[in-house]
Amino acid sequence: MEKQTSLDFFNTVSEDHTQELESRLLAKYQQDKILKFFMENWASSFTPWEVAGQFNMLITSVRRSITNLTTAGFLTKTEDMKAGPYGKKSFLWKLNIDL
C-alpha cells in the first residue's frame, strides 16, 4: 500500500513495546490481506462478516481494517445491506476503483 492509512493498531491495553510492535505488524498484515482481497474481487462488495469468514479473522480486526482502508480512500461503503450471521443487517464495502 502506498497511501498512509490511519493507525493500524490501537494499543488500548497498554502492551509493552515488544508486544505492541508485534500487534502493529499483525494488524498491518491483516489490513494488507484485506485490501488484496478487495482488489482481487474488485467487481464485488462484501460485509465485514463475509471478509472475516474468508480469513478466519476477528470481526473487530476486520472492521478496524475496513474503516482504515475506507478513511484512506481504498474502499467505499455502499448503501446496500445484507443480513449478517445474527440476522442484523450489515453494510457492504467495495474497492474504490476511482483512485
The CATH first-level class comes to Mainly Alpha
Strand order of the largest sheet: 1-3-2
Q: Strand pairing plus helix content: what structural class? A: alpha+beta
Overall outline: globular
Q: Name the assembly state.
A: single chain
How many structural domains are formed by the residues?
1
Care to count the β-strands?
A: 3
CATH topology: Arc Repressor Mutant, subunit A
Question: What level of helicity do the residues show?
Answer: 40-55%
The largest pleated sheet is described as: 3 strands, antiparallel
- Radius of gyration over alpha carbons? 14 Å
Fourth-level CATH superfamily: Winged helix-like DNA-binding domain superfamily/Winged helix DNA-binding domain
Share of residues in strands: 15-25%
Overall mean confidence score, pLDDT: 85
Helix count, DSSP H or I runs of 4 or more residues: 3
Describe the model.
- 45% of the residues lie in helices and 18% in strands.
- The radius of gyration is 14 Å and the shape is globular.
- The chain has a single domain (17-95), classed as Orthogonal Bundle (Arc Repressor Mutant, subunit A), CATH 1.10.10.
- Mean pLDDT is 85; it is low at 1-6.
- The longest helix is centred in the first third of the chain and has 24 residues, at 17-40.
- It contains 3 helices and 3 strands, in the order αβααββ.
- It starts with 16 loop residues before the first helix and ends with a strand.
- By secondary structure, the protein is an alpha+beta fold.
- The chain has helices at residues 17-40, 48-55, 59-71; strands at residues 45-46, 75-83, 89-95.
- The relative contact order is 0.19.
- It has a 3-stranded antiparallel sheet.
